[in-house]
């Protein structure tokens, strides 16, 4: 396989991953917006409390979508680790998202419903999503090791592409 073909395959996989992550995320945004506004307007909860509840509900729906669709092909053997890291990084994203909301609402005095929705669901969610995408693909949903190529002797350790890159970095 040529280097160009390998690059094309890698970019294609990344594009599909981003598209699936984005689809799951779009559904999560919808859940987030609906729950946020229901908490805020129907139940009369405080702005940041509504934001935290909405984000928590969206985190649950996003985990299910990412685990069973976006990253269904990744390692499933360490589920406790995966869920712990997912919740940890989602919690950081929650703080980013709702921290921006709190800054806008309480720090800048932008208290209209529109300002709250823009701060939380556009700016905060945008920054939080970038962090989540990086952390989920890097730490939570780890790729399975590549299978050993045909002809590898039994008992011989085969190093996949990631391991080969690590070895080259250490040697440099």
TrEMBL record:
It is found in: Membrane. The keyword Membrane applies. Residues 148-172 are annotated as: Disordered. Keywords: Membrane, Transmembrane, Transmembrane helix. Residues 20-141 form the GtrA/DPMS transmembrane domain. The chain crosses the membrane at residues 21-40, 46-64, 85-106, 118-135. It is a multi-pass membrane protein. Pfam families: GtrA_DPMS_TM. This is GtrA family protein. Belongs to the GtrA family. Residues 156-165 have a biased composition (Basic and acidic residues).
């Amino acid at each position: 396989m040529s280097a160009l073909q390998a690059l094309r395959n890698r970019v294609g996989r990344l594009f599909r991953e981003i598209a699936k992550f984005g689809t799951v995320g779009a559904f999560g945004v919808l859940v987030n917006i609906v729950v946020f506004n229901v908490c805020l307007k129907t139940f009369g909860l405080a702005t940041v409390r509504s934001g935290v509840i909405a984000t928590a509900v969206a985190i649950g729906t996003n985990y299910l979508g990412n685990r069973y669709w976006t990253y269904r092909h990744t390692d499933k053997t360490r589920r406790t680790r995966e869920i712990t890291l997912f919740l940890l990084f989602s919690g950081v994203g929650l703080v980013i998202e709702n921290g921006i909301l709190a800054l806008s609402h309480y720090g800048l005095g932008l208290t209209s419903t529109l300002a709250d929705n823009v701060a939380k669901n556009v700016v905060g969610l945008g920054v939080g999503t970038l962090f989540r995408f990086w952390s989920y693909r890097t730490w939570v949903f780890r790729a399975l090791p590549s299978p050993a190529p045909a002809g590898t002797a039994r008992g011989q350790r085969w190093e996949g592409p990631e391991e080969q890159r690590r070895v080259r970095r250490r040697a440099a």
